[in-house]
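### Sample
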Amino acid sequence: MNPTIELLMSHRSIRKFSEQKIPRELLLELIRAGQAAATSSHVQAYSVIHVTDPGKREMIAELAGGQGYIASCSDFLVLCADMKRPTDAAERTGAKVVRGMTEQLLVASVDTALMAQNVVVAAESEGLGICYIGGIRNNPQQISDLLSLPDHVFPVFGLCLGYPAQEPDVKPRLPVEAVLMENTYREDSAPVATFDATMHTYYSERSGGNKNTDWSHNLTPLFETKLRPHMRDFLVKRGFEMK
């Protein structure tokens, strides 16, 4: 493996950060690296809110489900899908723009994720740790109000950045044969069963034998409790009508 692949394969989520601050110029370089990511039709349908107000960070930590590392990391970003800037720009040229299309929601969401992942890789190459915060979608309207987000802009996730104060193990991933298929989709539960055994061992060792679970059982909240049924109405109200 070359150094870039080794870096990608060493990713971990960091939830404990030292008090060392990220230099401003480095933070700007990370954002520039993010902007270099692929973007659909050069739309660049994202905006980044750098939350520096301690009070706002405490509020976001609470709204995101009590995730204290939002307040304790060096820098906290909210990555937003932004269709306001490109549609406004097109409209100023005289274009008869159509807002609220499902494709616009997808483009902005994908653009935001690609941009953020570039930021993450750049940050980790500098020895920083990161943690994505999907919990801001627990209360997206309150987050939007707190950050004064206009219509056609919505918070996709947050991102903690800082110097790590912990060294967690790299969490295993599904075997490549579970996700790489040739020509047609293949249904095969065998790789999942193998992966469940791997994850059972991982959780047991990490918890000193106190966590008896695996990958399949850990998916339960996604389909039973972490449904966030409010998201559709929220997106429609923000102008993403999914027409």
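The chain has two domains: 3-170+227-237, 171-212. This sample (Nitroreductase) is used throughout the tutorial notebook.
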